[in-house]
Amino acid sequence: MKKYIYKIFNSLEKLESNIAFYPSIISLFGLLFAFLMIYLESIGISKYLVKHYPVLVVNNTETARNLLTTFIAGLISIMVFSFSLVMILLNQASSNFSPRVLPGLISNRRHQIILGTYNAALLYCIFTLVSITPNGDKYQMPGFSVLLSIVFMTLSLGAFIYFIHSISQEIQVNTIMDKIFIKSKLRLEKLVEAEKHIDAGFEDTSDWKNIMANSTGYMQDVSLKALADLAESHDLMIEVVPIKGAYILKGIPVIKYKGEASDHMEDNEDLESKLLDSITFSNSELIEDNYVLAFKQITEIAVKAMSPGINDPGTCINAIDYLTELFALRMTKKDHSYYFNDDEKALIHINTVSFEELLYNVMVALRTYCKHDVIVVQKLFVMFQYLLQQNNVLDENYKEVIIKEIVNLKKDALDNYNNDRDIELIKSYITKLQNINPSEYKF
Predict the structure, then answer these.
(1) For residue range 325-353, what is the model confidence (pLDDT) as tens digits?
(2) The pLDDT of residue 126
(3) Could you give the 3-state DSSP secondary structure of residue 74?
(4) 20, 276, 50, 229: which is closest to 142 by C-alpha?
(5) Using CA atoms, how far apart are residues 200 and 339, in angstroms rounded to an integer?
(6) What is the mean pLDDT of residues 69-84?
(7) 361, 420 in Cβ contact below 8 A?
(8) Which residues share a beta bridge with 240?
(9) 239 pLDDT above the threshold of 80
(10) pLDDT in tens, 127-152
């Protein structure tokens, strides 16, 4: 039962990120409200209001028809313009920054709600116009419903003004990077807080039983609670083989487990099926599920900014600032992740991207495409200086990893420059890094 609840919850989360989710829900409410008003008009709400509150009723048929027709045409124009702006935003973000940022922009809840408001108001106006009686009798005409359509049109205009303001902010690269940073920071902080700093002596898993993937896609998430329940109930030890966010091909091992096999083949197959069901595959990646994606996105934005067609070192420097803080936070997390039961016993080993691999993947891209700009190289040395000075590092080996990348950056930088002033600047930063702890770090 828990498995199905989790799958439903996960499916709803993926559906929520779809650009049509909230517009569809809000449009449905607009349609239902239109039918509700038609019912209220049929039982005489406008007739009652004409007697007691005539100011709340539009009781002229031609005026009502003209208003509703104008509103419908105006709302269609606003919707077309708004959707066009969204498409322009997505196209520009993909061209100038990175295609990976598109899921985050598409899932912007505010824009979805605004587009849904337009559609709900449009549907309401259409059905209200249809409900006007042809004889023009003032008691049969939905006068109060027409007044509400004026209110909804006013709200739509206000939403349109806010949409123009919001879309102009969303298209800025600093806003995009800031949102990526905030999401990844929250995810990392959650992982660090939940991580038990216990040395788990997990045994070698090379001879454990393998469960193969039965589909392809990105490994979006793992239900650790469901896996832990299975591990405890069947006395198992489990390893999740792929790294979260990796693209899984059908037929490769995704789970290894160790435990007593049942005498019945069907029971073993049922257990393996339950273990495999705890992994969710998807064709998209979200930062909320995988913080490593944020490093990829910010790095790609930095590299794209340094391309000859854009040539924007300022954006690249801002991206390095965000990466610096994320790397500092990552240094407070272990390379190996485990899931413990209440007795502090490690039941599940979760493979994660190591700090060394993460730093190398980021730096190899930056060194390759940004080494020609001495200002960007200077900023990278400042990043390394900040990381070496961190005092809350969980693993001292992280600093050795940083030193390796400093050596790589030094070599690429000195090989790339012929100007004496540039070479002198690079050597001065190497000296600063050496002076942090000269007895320990040798460059």
Answers:
(1) 999 999 988 877 777 776 767 778 888 88
(2) 92
(3) helix
(4) 50
(5) 10
(6) 89
(7) no
(8) 255, 350
(9) yes
(10) 988 888 665 444 456 778 888 899 99
Stretch (H or E) spanning 258: strand 253-258
- The torsion angles phi and psi of 255, rounded to 5 degrees, stand at -135, 135
All structural domains of the chain with their residue ranges: 2-171, 183-192+289-336+353-436, 198-282
- CA-angle at 49, arms to 46 and 50, nearest 5°: 85
305 vs 128: CA distance, rounded Å? 51
Indicate the range of 32-41, 355-364, 433-442 predicted with least confidence.
433-442
**Between 61-96 and 109-130, two packed helices, what is the crossing angle to 10 degrees?**
160
CA distance 354 to 361: 11
241 Cβ neighbours under 8 A, 6+ residues apart: 253, 254, 255, 256, 351
Contacts with 301 (C-beta within 8 Å, 6 or more apart), sequence order: 97, 98, 101, 173, 176, 177, 315, 319
Three state DSSP letters for 207-239: CCEEEECCCCEEEEEECHHHHHHHHHHCCCEEE
pLDDT given for residue 6 in this prediction: 47
> Domain 198-282 classified CATH 3.90.1170.30?
yes
Cβ atoms < 10 Å from Cβ of 10:
16
Beta strands 346-350 and 237-240 are: parallel
Q: In terms of Cα–Cα distance, which of 364, 439, 360, 355 is closest to 398?
A: 355
Comparing 63-67, 254-258, 335-339, 340-344, the range with the smallest average pLDDT is 340-344
Return the minimum-mean-pLDDT range out of 193-202, 245-254, 275-284.
193-202
Distance CA(370)–CA(377), nearest Å, equals: 7
HSE-up of residue 222 (Cα within 13 Å, Cβ side): 26
Nearest-CA neighbor of 277 among 225, 223, 210, 341?
223
Cβ neighbour number for residue 228 with a 10 Å cutoff: 18
CA end-to-end distance (rounded Å), the chain? 57
DSSP bridge pairs for 339: 348
